[in-house]
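lol so apparently i was supposed to do this last week
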Amino acid sequence: MIIYIEKQALEYEQTKKIIERFKNSTIIYIDNYKNIFDKDYTNLDSKKALIIAKLNSNAVSEAPAWYGHTKSAYFFKTSLNCIFDCDYCYLKWAFKNENMVVFVNYDDIKNEIFHKISTLWEWEHWFYSSDYSDILWMNSLSDFSNEFIEFFEQFEDVKMEIRTKSSNITSLLNLWFIPKNTEIAFSLNPQILIDKYEKWTSSLDSRIEAINKLLSLWFKVWIRFLPLLPVKNYEEIYSEFAKYVNSKIKMCDINSTFASGLLYTKKDYNKILSKYKDLDILHMLELDNDWFYRESKKVRDTFYTMFKKLDNKCILCLEY
Ligand code: SF4
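anyway here it is w/ iron/sulfur cluster bound
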């Protein structure tokens, strides 16, 4: 593996741990991660190289209102890009290449989150950690769980979500406590669609096994039925899937569920379409009157009826 290291990131503890862990890697020192990450450039030796960098811009940004549980929600980033290869993923066109970045100045990122929280009113606020990469998979490089789960425990009415398609829960099992402020959200889809559209992600069964293990230890677990894909025979495929999930997981133990179809802004939709013209699921979306490209209301309602039947408290993404 090739590891690019920003010179200003060299002295951070996490950088040293990564170098120690990947002793046989080729290390290249760089001045600024953007010199590698912001280039339309293909690394010929390794499709996804690792870049270790210091985040000098904002880590926290506001999520759209009612994106998830509450009106008040934020994304924060500690890494960019993902080892997995989901066809519909917005990271494919959000960034210019597939190299993965780990930002190692955790104290700066925590300070920014702390400062943001100190400006918020006293109701529930959510921080989403996994919108720029699969944080749980990335943990083997970033030690995210150790660094951030305990950090979030100090707050009242503040929650963090770790969303994942990985079944590698070792870092969670190795915590010395069961977190009250972090929920682990597993995205689930039928295996036939995982095989086709979510390459390299953990199988449905191994994600279910991870969910059941965490539930048995009293972790707060979410299920995200996301993105629901409007493929041919979707009603049959998803109704079988809902039955299967219900037979394998004690749904009453799940903290909450969430359902959403594919959803792109008009700008993002046009970008992904220009890059992946043959991606069939893109052609099954339409421009809704809220200016998002998404499945038709009829398809969404069919999905929602199924998942409300599975959990009548199921939250629907950006449905008014
Ligand atoms: S797991 Fe998530 S972040 Fe990774 S490629 Fe798939 S959709 Fe993108």
